[in-house]
Structures
1.
Amino acid sequence: MNPSKTIQAIIFDLDGVLTDTALYHFRAWKALADKLGVSFTEQDNEQLKGVDRLNSLRWIAEKGGLVLSADEEDRLMAQKNAHYLQLIQHMNQADLYPGVQPLFAAIKAKGWKIGLASASKNAAFVVDRLGVAADFDFVADANQVKNSKPDPEVFLLAAAGLEVAPGHCIGVEDAVAGIEAICAAGMRPVGIGEPALLAQASLVVPHIASLSIAQLQALA
Ligand code: B16
Ligand code: MG
């Protein structure tokens, strides 16, 4: 076996991969966009998956032709986040996507590490609510990085925290920006969702429940 190709860690995105928070992000952004008089559809929301809070707000403002001051940006981001937190406060272990627990168990049985690389500042809260905090060997999120996906920073931070070279990692993402980040980090990309949308990924499955350990092993 070529040691340069062995897999030592799987690094997961959170929103849209392990749980369906994307819907709550959409509802909170939609409510804010309505207030600002900007039309915002589910298709628009696809563009914001994996994009951090500030850049998401800027995308919506630009769509509406609005110019926001730094103070307005702070106020609107706080409003959106308060609404989002209200929407996710009821989350619990039942919100973990089916298939995550058996996949984590299979990854551990292989001796591979498990990491998280999320663009969300609420990642630790969500992971805790899902009851999987103890499964991660390292959690990297938006509180620890300067550059948002598609920049590779959060995936590289996760790999460093896991003490695994990026070339030995597989990244799993549902967002176009996330797949770009994984590629830029020099990791093997697995997409969750539409193959046409995530064309840069080496493998795309419709849902995490359909991702097997054999498929991950085959990427080595
Ligand atoms: P927050 P991920 C991303 O998380 C979401 O996909 C994206 O829609 C959201 O805007 C971003 O987190 C920021 O989230 O406002 O909670 O900091 O998919 O990278 O886990
Ligand atoms: Mg995501």
2.
Amino acid sequence: MPTTQPPYYITTPIYYVNDRPHVGSCYTTLLADCAARFMRAAGRPVFFLTGTDEHGQKVEKSAASRGLTPKALADENAAHFKTAFQFLHCSFDHFIRTTDAAHEAQVQEALRRLIKSGDVYLGTFEGWYDEGQEEYVTENQAREKNFKAFNGQPLVKAKEHNYYFRLSAFQKRLEEFFEKNPGFVRPEARRNEVLGRFKEGLQDVPVSRTSFTWGVPFPKEIEGADRHVTYVWIDALFNYITALDLLSVSPAPGGGDVAPRQRGQPPLASFWPAQVHAIGKEILWFHAVIWPALLMALNLPTPHCIYAHSFWIRDGKKMSKSLGNFIDLETIHAYCNAFSVDAWRWFMLTQGPIEATDADFSHPKFVEAYNADLANGIGNASSRVLNMIEKYFAGAVPDPQGNSNHAGHDWPALAQSSLASATSAMEHFDLAGALAAAMSLSKRVDAYIVATEPYRMAKDQAKMPEVGLVLYHCAEALRIAATLLACAMPAKMSDVLQRFGQEPPRPDGSFSRPLSELCKWGGLKPGTRVVKGEGLFPRADSDAPPPTPTPP
Ligand code: MSP
């Protein structure tokens, strides 16, 4: 496929290894996967990055409590994240770990440059510290939160001699940057939150720690820097550019286990700046303010968009370890086994907290969406159409004889607008909107069948050409819908496409031709053999209990 289209770089947060994957980490990674697959299908060169954040005191402490070295704990849990994301068919191009030698070397290089430019300096700091989040909060925030940390524990007053990043010096530049780039932080409500905090004035942020050792050491040659390790958040943010070898000092690219660039693929560095850093709302400040300031200090371009989604909650309550109501990997596995991985993906992608409000996970809601969109939706439409082609046309796609507009349905225009809306929504990271635009074609097929009643017409031999016309339109609309929906449900939509005699997407979501060509009306050749197959999404019984959590 020609790679003249602009590169698309999308990232997830890198997840802490003192925890196991759960619905939250899987959710953000699924969002990024869906966008990455769609962009690959559209023909854009894509780099999709996820990974693990492995340094810091929390990891050091968790490891010690289990009698492990921090690295051993990190190895164990990084593997869990990788396996969980692969199980959910996430097509990441690289899984970065902050303990990768290439990452560590580049973090040191960033520090060297920042110290040289004077943006990082040695100083003293005293303030309210959230031990769970490993971050300082301002006096105002501490008061607002009743001096409680994110996890409910008391905030502690801490004093440190540290290296600091001169964030205060970037206040004006950042304000101008926000003004000029209204789409930088999304959704809008999140942007307003950041703008509100600008008014409190920006304070310098510590970028080193001396209270523990599990971190990237400050470069040896820097005077007074021995015993200082890089603050976990600063180390972590740099992952977005170290994965592209942007700060590499060695001439040979050595980005961890990045697959070697194949011929025709753009160089890694050309993926910067990222189109989207997909994150959860609780880590917005680091991404929306500290990260662009660090990049400005390094004279590097800033990312296009920080997309901060909201939280999954469960049955109306925040999920927490103490309540024991986390949707853990065992629960995710149970749903995937009972309803398919793609049904889980569909629910996550269409019913999740992508916008500014939290989304409630409940079993009845899952079953309702599953039945409405999948079992009674595209699953049923595909089975009906395949059945009728088999029954009335011996399994060969009928010939519409050049007619594309029928019974008030201008099919080429419908297909075109579905592609255009899905593409534009995806470019704005409106995944639910993009998927709704694609699904609308399948809904049209239902309405068209109801309006034209091909099964009734088929009783009259003279009407068979019209039955053929209707079924061609239905099959072609479903082919296009499945092509557009493959980014959300890669396995099931591959199955639909194959039943209609079409080539499925490649494992990374790309096709041999871009969506703009594939989704043109008329791509389905009359005479193509179709296969009826088993039911795609068997109906779910809404009275049945939720599936029992099962170990992976
Ligand atoms: N390591 C930092 C991120 C560094 S990025 C440079 C971190 N890690 S984390 O393991 O705590 O992951 C946080 C992310 O997990 C959130 O930003 C969000 O993407 C996801 N989620 C965690 N809980 C969630 C929900 N309940 N709902 C949705 N997503 C949430 O913070």
